[in-house]
Design goal:
Radius of gyration: 21 Å
Structural class: alpha/beta
Strand order of the largest sheet: 7-8-9-6-5-4-3-2-1-10-11-12
Largest sheet: 12 strands, mixed
Number of strands: 12
Strand content: 5-15%
Distance between the termini: 9 Å
Shape: globular
Order of helices and strands: HHHEHEHEHEHHEHEHEEEEEEHH
């Protein structure tokens, strides 16, 4: 089985990147639509013969009247679609974008990364801060309202604060990060001041020995202290992501539920998912149904919490508890029908399905000096037109 779900950023985003180094193309946009796009779009399943027609419909990449681009008040036919939402062929509106800021991570979680780490691409192969912010503005102009920075580990990126602040300034309603929280404590106050309003912390155990075994590092106490600091500072939408594995932490599921008694956190139990290299087998996977039965055996009746239309988690609460719990059932009960998510890898590849291998390079397009923001929109639209109804 070849699935590459992101486990730590939902989950860990490092392995969704492409490991090959792609040459930066300098062809003009007209040539890009035929030649470069053939190379990029082939990864989303479009044949080479089909690329020019698909890329150029319904409007050409380059306006027929060059003066229209220079004239700020001119409105060509193609510009009229600039503020339309990003909708795929199954009528799913895409309003949620995840951007991986780095391939580096300061942990080596056993289900996510080999102990020796992974080969890192050269810095010039990764998106620059200006390129990231350009993409943020492009996606925001097309109806994206929620952005999450992931990694690797996003707190290792030196410009994380600037990225959060300028992304909120671009008009996004929600800007969040998914982090292991090892290096978060000192950065958190400034991030919250800069507009961070969604915080996910990956935490699979509340026991020091198990934390060291699963992450191959020390640091559980630091993470728990950071969670308490986030609550003290009033961090909104604080979630803990817990990957549940039968031979590791299934017996801690009820401990995590008890953790929500006096803490206004949302603990999300994630079904263990397969990807290349983590030696996945179904004997380790625990379904939402089994977890729910274990919880109800200890805590009794659970209140159902109203889920949003695009929520990945099915949420519950123990009556009287400050926090809540949720289940992300990617394996036993997928949520593809309401998917509104897109991902951009650290090296600039757009993935319209978090579990899919298909991707198209936005980095290469941006590094062509003739590529306009509208050109980028057309490439994004074309990628979405190939999104499948559900992952495998």
């Amino acid at each position: 089985m070849r699935l590459k779900p992101p486990v730590c950023s939902l989950l860990s985003p490092w392995f969704s990147r492409s490991h090959e180094r792609r040459e930066v193309r300098r062809s003009p946009v007209a040539a890009y639509s035929v030649a470069t796009a053939q190379d990029s779009v082939r990864r989303i399943g479009v044949s080479a013969a089909d690329v020019p027609q698909r890329i150029s419909r319904p409007a050409p990449l380059r306006p027929e009247n060059p003066a229209a681009r220079a004239e700020p008040n001119a409105r060509s036919e193609s510009e009229k679609v600039r503020h339309l939402p990003l909708v795929d062929t199954f009528a799913r509106e895409h309003t949620y974008l995840r951007i991986s800021l780095t391939e580096r991570c300061n942990l080596r979680c056993t289900y996510c990364m080999p102990e020796e780490g992974v080969p890192l691409q050269p810095t010039d192969a990764l998106l620059t801060v200006d390129e990231i912010l350009r993409l943020v503005r492009v996606f925001a102009s097309r109806g994206v309202t929620k952005l999450r920075f992931t990694g690797g580990e996003p707190t290792l990126h030196p410009e994380l604060g600037r990225l959060v602040h300028e992304s909120r300034a671009a008009g996004l309603a929600e800007v969040g990060i998914t982090t292991n929280a090892i290096a978060l404590r000192r950065k958190l106050p400034a991030l919250l001041d800069g507009g961070l309003n969604n915080l996910n912390i990956s935490l699979d155990t509340l026991r020091e020995d198990r934390y060291t075994r699963i992450t191959r590092r020390l640091g559980l106490q630091r993470v728990l202290e950071t969670i308490d600091l986030a609550l003290e500072l009033g961090a909104p939408r604080l979630k803990l992501n817990c990957v549940v594995m039968r031979d590791f932490n299934l017996d801690e599921v009820t401990d995590f539920v008890a953790y929500t008694r006096q803490r206004a956190v949302d603990v999300r139990f994630i079904e263990y998912m397969p990807f290349d290299g983590n030696q996945w087998n179904d004997s380790r996977m625990v379904s939402m149904k089994e977890m729910l039965e274990n919880i109800e055996e200890r805590f009794g009746f659970l209140e159902k919490v109203q889920d949003g239309p695009n929520d990945t988690a099915k949420s519950y609460r123990v009556p009287g508890y400050a926090g809540q719990i949720g289940f992300i059932s990617s394996m036993s009960d997928h949520f593809c029908g309401s998917c509104n998510r897109m991902r951009i890898t650290a090296d600039g590849n757009l993935k319209v399905c978090l579990f899919g291998a298909a991707e198209v390079s936005l980095r290469d397009a941006m590094r062509d000096p003739d590529t306009t923001d509208h050109d980028l929109e057309r490439i994004i639209e074309q990628a979405l037109s190939r999104k499948k109804a559900r992952h495998a």
